[in-house]
Amino acid sequence: MEKNKNLYGLNTFGMSAVADYYVRATSEDDVMRAIELSCEKKLPLLVLSGGSNMLIVEDLHAVVLHMDTRGIEVEGRDGSDTLVRVAAGEDWHETVMWSIENGYAGMENLAYIPGKVGSSPVQNIGAYGVEARCVIESVEVIDISSGERRVIAASECEFGYRESIFKNSARGRYVIMSVLFRLHSTEGYKLHLDYGNIRAELEKRGIENPTVADVADVVTFIRRSKLPEPSQVGNCGSFFKNPVISRQLYETLIEKHNDMPSYDVEGANDEHWKKIPAAYLIDRAGWKGYRRGCVGVHQNQALVLVHYGGGTGKDVLMLCQDICRDVKEKYGVEISPEVNIINSDFLARCAVGGKVE
Ligand code: EPU
User: Fold this and answer.
1) Does one domain contain both 207 and 83?
2) Quick check: CB of 237 below 6 Å from ligand 1?
3) Which of 148, 166, 288, 298 is the most interior residue, by most CB within 10 Å?
4) pTM (2 d.p.)
5) Number of domains in the chain
6) pLDDT tens digits for 311-357?
7) In which domain, by residue range, is 248 found?
8) Which CATH number belongs to the domain containing residue 32 in this structure?
9) List 140, 162, 164, 201, catalytic entry
10) Are 38 and 45 in contact, with CB atoms under 8 Å apart?
11) Which residues pair with 131 in a beta bridge?
């Protein structure tokens, strides 16, 4: 345990912020100790995983639990599928590479997403037409207020686009200990190649019959060329979610902006008609490459806000608010952050540790 720990280096935006208490957990015992500390100090417990999807905007009066547990284990088979348990602290991309090296399919489109395994169900991370929910079987958690273990089946996780129960009704309630994945045999497996420029990139490489390894390779290549590395410049990947707009708004917009891309949404209705890339709106509103002091909008990808160093979470938040306001004024579309904004309001919704028996 450390007191007054600066979280710089533990969040990919590279923000300096001090946490009252910090516990790095490499075992379940460490997690229990953090829960006890939260109970004793009457402070909320904030779980920190890869720190790759959070913007810390102030010092945190909390016990920050940094999940650093390891382990990837085959737990069993179900027909041609294999069930693999992965500890929350394992690196996501390394887990994807492990699955490919061991001959499993299902995770390849999710290569090179930053972060740890424990946050994959929270965000229901996704890319290139695949989401984490496609491979999650269940999530093992510890209830912070009672210290009890629970298994939450994928069907109970309320997965949606970058959404899950862990971001909504169960926010702040659990520490995710491990995720059980259902991976597929590569035999007879249908690859997902139709999203973005995966197919074009495979063709460019002269690959006619791609393997899961080829897909992961191409996805990694595309992500690296489009998205900035946090080691070079602070960022959290896509900062905004792609908004879903009404039929009426879509029809008004497409008339004026006939190059506006859109995606179909599942179960579309007049209120929720099409998904629009936030990147397009932010770009056309003139924000791409914009810089304001220590923060800005990435020059190659309008969805990504960047921190050049020396700034604060509040600087990024102000930029985010200005972009949202401007996009609303120019297009009538409300966009909102995908990244978790960590402040006292967020902490107020995190559980305080209960008495652990
Ligand atoms: N576009 C612009 N300007 C830009 C960038 C894009 O106009 O600067 C337009 C282009 O027309 C493009 C469209 O926006 O066709 C979509 O852009 P892109 O494919 O770059 O982004 P996206 O599809 O909206 C999503 C995820 C990414 C994920 C990619 C690939 C969200 C918010 N983002 O981006 O996720 O990697 O698809 O599947 O859903 C992340 O969550 O951190 C993330 C990077």
Assistant:
1) yes
2) yes
3) 166
4) 0.94
5) 3
6) 999 999 999 999 999 999 999 999 999 999 999 999 999 999 997 66
7) 239-337
8) 3.30.43.10
9) 162
10) yes
11) 126
